[in-house]
Amino acid sequence: MLVATCIAAGLQGCMPFKAVFRGHPDYRDSKRFPTNAIAAGNEVFHFQTTDKDWGKTIKVTDWTTDLPVFSTIQQVVAGHSTLAFLLIRKDTILFEYYAEGSTSKSQFPSYSIAKSFTSALIGIAIQEGFINSVDDPVKNYLPELNFHPYFNQLTLRHLLNQTSGIKYSLTQDAVIYYGRDIWKSVKRIEFDTTPGKIQSYLNINYLLLGMALEKATGIAPHTYLEEKLWQPLGMETDAFWSADNKNRKEKTFCCLNATAMDYAKFGRLYLHDGSWEGKQIIEQQWVNQSVSRDTTAGSSFGYNFGWHIGLLEYGDFMANGLYKQHIYINPKKELIIVSLLRKEDKLKAERVNWWYVFRQISDQL
Known about the structure:
Layout: H1 2-9, H2 17-22, E1 35-38, E2 48-49, E3 59-60, E4 71-72, H3 73-78, E5 82-89, E6 92-98, E7 108-109, H4 113-127, H5 156-160, H6 170-178, H7 183-186, H8 203-217, H9 221-230, E8 239-242, E9 256-258, H10 260-271, E10 275-276, E11 279-280, H11 284-290, E12 303-304, E13 307-309, E14 317-321, E15 325-330, E16 335-341, H12 346-351, H13 354-363
Parallel strand pairs: 2-6
Antiparallel strand pairs: 1-8, 3-4, 5-6, 5-16, 7-9, 8-9, 10-11, 12-13, 13-14, 14-15, 15-16
Helix pairs in contact: 4-8, 4-9
């Protein structure tokens, strides 16, 4: 099996044995990889609570049956492979759920939710002057990437909007997730098209953003996150970012691990246009740009700067991750929903559309 995989990989190099052995990413991977710690500060922000049990009040359908069967939020959440679920409106926790064996202090992997954090750090680096603009060439920060002519055209904007033109490689994805040295995969990047032509969702784009961020600031992404977001937002629990073995480089396309409550605080920051308790943490212009629709230069209607853009009617947007993990934000209802799941039955996972569930909830608030 491993030999066949290596032959199929060709010039891209041999797929890591862990990728062949484990197959799919797993929520337990956070305990298998080296990690870089992100310390919480001394001042903690707490959401308010309520005595009303909204988990038994609001009813929704998840369409996992052929008929629209309406059940309480508590029943729907418990009926899926949910690790944690938070419903917060106007800074008040209306419903909170944790799977058996998990608590409010449990740290959960973010998968691609981490891309939205990486995007935020790029915005902060721009406002602090470490990066001039999203239109800066990537080679300004990673001059080592000079082995393909398209690197001369590649900008940070292309990486943020997934319009880099870089060719997808299964082996490359496996190396940057499971491999001991993620730089190996960066050295083997190939292109399908010139940058700015078409949107293609690739993990390598946000890995390059993390590397460019570190070169620009001179600070490792986990430390920058700690200084600029984790402590200023009053996160209550230490977090950690998974890294590779050789260089301890953060996997900035995924693999941030934190509590559901602290993910909600990041959502709250974007709910309030980058402002936190009277202080502008991220410039409002960056937040607005991040969650606005942009169809120029290959971008699509529903994805921008690491965020998934919802429906115009709701004005909602989301940070999304593998296995249907979400930080859902509805500014009109002042609503934040954090939904963290692990891999579940394929048919059930295909049928449920959590965005529709979230909107059913918002319609009843």
